[in-house]
Amino acid sequence: MHDEVSSIGIYGMGGVGKTTLVMHMYNQLLWRSDTFSHVYWITVSQDTSIKKLQGSIRRCIGLNLFNEDEERHIAVEMRKELMKKQKWVLILDDLWNTIEKLGVLVKVKGCKLILITRSKKICQQMDTLHIIKVKPILEEKAWILFIKRLGHDITLCPEVEQIAKSIT
């Protein structure tokens, strides 16, 4: 919270666990209200537009702009509203494209923007200050985790074990 990093980009291939990792962080932040006053999560669809995304953010932060169509004006108003809230975290999950004129890239101490995407390029284009790559776990570790979740006292027949190993 007290560092200079206002934006974090988390990227990696689909299914590697990016969203699960950040969901854990999100839940922790919700329970620890002493760190951030407001924590927002928005899932961005692949075919989203700036207007749809701004609408989602406006609903989350409680900003009502009736009959407003100008993206730049909305961006300014969202920035003002977020500045009032001071300590906040906004998580944008499943970002597929760079989004300009969004209105949330506020570099204010105590405020964080977390982007989850498959592309390092998007993290770079969105000027995230810290970029983290999430990699898949090794096959051996995946198997150990699978067996641990299944239960140590269960024995698999060779055919089922072969299928289970190929899945993990």
TrEMBL record:
For this protein, the record's Pfam families field holds: NB-ARC (PF00931)
- What are the record keywords, sorted? Plant defense
What are the GO MF terms of this UniProt record?
ADP binding
NB-ARC domain span: 3-149
Query: Is RNA-binding one of the keywords UniProt gives this record?
Result: no
Q: Does the keyword Transmembrane apply?
A: no
In Swiss-Prot or TrEMBL terms, this protein is called Probable disease resistance protein At4g27220
Q: Which organism is it from?
A: Populus euphratica (Euphrates poplar)
What phylogenetic lineage does the species belong to?
A: Eukaryota, Viridiplantae, Streptophyta, Embryophyta, Tracheophyta
